Amino acid sequence: MRLSEPRIDPLEPDQWSEEAANVMAPIVEAGPPLNIFKTLAHHPGLMRRWMVFANHVLAKSTLPARERELVILRIGFLCRSGYEWGQHVVIARAAGLVDDEIRRIQVGSEDPAWSDLDRALLAATEELHADSFIADGTWAALTDHLSTEQIMDVVFAVGQYNLVSMALNSLGVQPEDGLPGWDV
Length: 184
Hints:
It is a single chain. The chain is mostly helical. It has 2 domains: 13-59, no CATH class; 63-171, AhpD-like (Up-down Bundle), CATH 1.20.1290.10. Helices cover 65% and strands 0% of the residues. The chain has helices at residues 18-30, 35-40, 44-60, 65-78, 82-94, 99-107, 116-131, 136-143, 148-171. α3 packs across α9 and α7 packs antiparallel against α8 (136-143). The longest helix has 24 residues, at 148-171. The two termini are 15 Å apart.
């Protein structure tokens, strides 16, 4: 974590405006709301609009869950977003990634143990983070394994979680108790 205290305190349900409560209703139905959502409750209009895109990337993407989580964890690591990392380690495990793979995500595409597809996904993430562009060689490697829609979903997943990492880091959103850290 870059900040040990939130810059914007998460709002508890009794602090939500009517608009925030309406936006939070489906989240609360699924279980206790995470700190990211309780922080975004300060700006329910933004949260409502952002959730449409975030829902596509996380739940409606054409990427298989394992590959999506590989990309999300890599961009979260590159952005040094401890909150994002911890939340998505849990999701990645459920999607089939094992702890050895999760640790190797921190090394990135240079780790020789990755499959060709995994290496291409990690390289694309690294290139988008460094230069906002996927190099021709990486693009060609992606096209060997993924459809056009899937490659587009890679780009938008990296962009989405880069944005989320910026927000989490800058707002000081603190991880929930029990989330994994960098030392998976």
